[in-house]
Amino acid sequence: MGCCESSLFKGHDSNATGGDNKQHNNNNQQHNHRNNHQASQPSNGTDGGGGGGGGSDGVPAFSEFSLADLKAATNNFSSDFIVSESGEKAPNLVYKGRLQTGGNSNSNSNNNNRRWIAVKKFTKMAWPDPKQFAEEAWGVGKLRHKRVANLIGYCCDGENQTIEWAMRLRVALYIAEALDYCSCEGRPLYHDLNAYRVLFDESGDPRLSCFGLMKNSRDGKSYSTNLAYTPPEYLRNGRVTPESVIFSFGTVLLDLLSGKHIPPSHALDMIRGKNILLLMDSHLEGNFSTEEATVVFDLASRCLQYEPRERPNTKDLVSTLAPLQNRPDVPSYVMLGIPKQEEAPPTPQHPLSPMGDACSRMDLTAIHQILVMTHYKDDEGTNELSFQEWTQQMRDMLEARKRGDVAFREKDFKTAIDCYSQFIDVGTMVSPTVYSRRSLCHLLCDQPDAALRDAMQAQCVYPDWSTAFYMQAVALAKLDMHKDAADMLKEAASLEEKKQRGGRSS
């Protein structure tokens, strides 16, 4: 869930970056990206406006945006666009972005297009009821004042992806293995084990957060959670034992099975009543093995026993869950439906230029900045035109390139591709810079094959141009041709080194 504020970043560096890759929290065992978003903009008016309508002050009417609108504005919620990131209990993510359309408002003003906005993204936990969120947003959206970053819209669209059964079994096993390892290493106590302690790494593999091993938990005195999920012995004497961790693991198993946070006492009653199917997550739609589910429910029941001595130990957890793994050869990222983490080409030993460094990290945003700053200085000498060639067609071609440059600076990469293609198709002039820019546009539009072709064309025009080789390296890496990408990166670095010794290259 989220919200948008407009014109907030006028004059802000749109290329500023925003942090490292994050591991993702496992919330109720579903990748639930349902977001509410709200948009607002500072008004130029002198008094508070009402009704949520647009006015002469240029603030657009309050409206509902689609998730596609906000993805386009924030480059698919790129980490490069994050301007605020805080909050532990309730994550607070704010993105900058540039609105491509005026939403669903009826305003035809060009000012409603290409405006800067701030988008605040909420989790479903923060606003479980989309209807309540929408009502609150519409209420705030009526406010209009020059001292307020006015709310111009919201979004309740979402993308829900249920984790399949085999992946849930993998989560259970991996966390059991993590607990067994910690126990063998003399750290059997884990602070407040729950589903939120399960993280997914870049390959989609589940991992146990190490933070639960800290917080003064080794002496057994640090434990804080909802009382309904607290081990009984902690309520009696205020101390956590290794058996208490097993109890908490049982609650994680219930979360994996049901997709909900069910109080252990309620779940045990249903298990004893043989109502196992009623506990299963309905989002699985029956796509699970009843026999395997019965084994996991039985294990959860043993973990949740009132007497600590009756609970299994960590090795019992592993030995019970290991035989249930039915898709061991399928990578986690495939089961989660997330893209494979791309490997950046290895960095050469000698220092790289800014362009080489950006390409070795596959940082498309940094590459874009460099190409914008370099402009066309590398095209010098690649074209010699006679007076007779300055025809109307030539002027039209250069105008197409100019429009492409504007779109490229504004990060409107699809328009840039169209304009640069008009320039290239005429064929009177050849520009390695245009090819390299269109190559990057293709990369940013997830078209690595086309990007590679353009980078190779740039090399044909300018055989010793390091940028052409760098762009080929990035495109090859995107195509999972990592050995070729590494070779190309080395060749580009070699050309740069040659230039430093007086050669003609960039």
UniProtKB/TrEMBL annotation:
It catalyses: L-seryl-[protein] + ATP = O-phospho-L-seryl-[protein] + ADP + H(+); L-threonyl-[protein] + ATP = O-phospho-L-threonyl-[protein] + ADP + H(+). It is found in: Cell membrane. Belongs to the protein kinase superfamily. Ser/Thr protein kinase family. One of its GO terms (molecular function) is protein serine/threonine kinase activity. One of its GO terms (biological process) is brassinosteroid mediated signaling pathway. It comes from the Eukaryota. This is non-specific serine/threonine protein kinase. GO terms for cellular component: plasma membrane. It is a lipid-anchor. Its EC number is 2.7.11.1. Residues 46-57 have a biased composition (Gly residues). Residues 1-60 are annotated as: Disordered. It holds the Pfam family Pkinase. Keywords: ATP-binding, Brassinosteroid signaling pathway, Cell membrane, Kinase, Lipoprotein, Membrane, Myristate, Nucleotide-binding, Serine/threonine-protein kinase, Transferase. The keyword Ribosomal protein does not apply. Residues 80-325 form the Protein kinase domain. Its main location: membrane. InterPro entries: BSK (IPR045845), Kinase-like_dom_sf (IPR011009), Prot_kinase_dom (IPR000719), TPR-like_helical_dom_sf (IPR011990), TPR_BSK1_C (IPR058209).
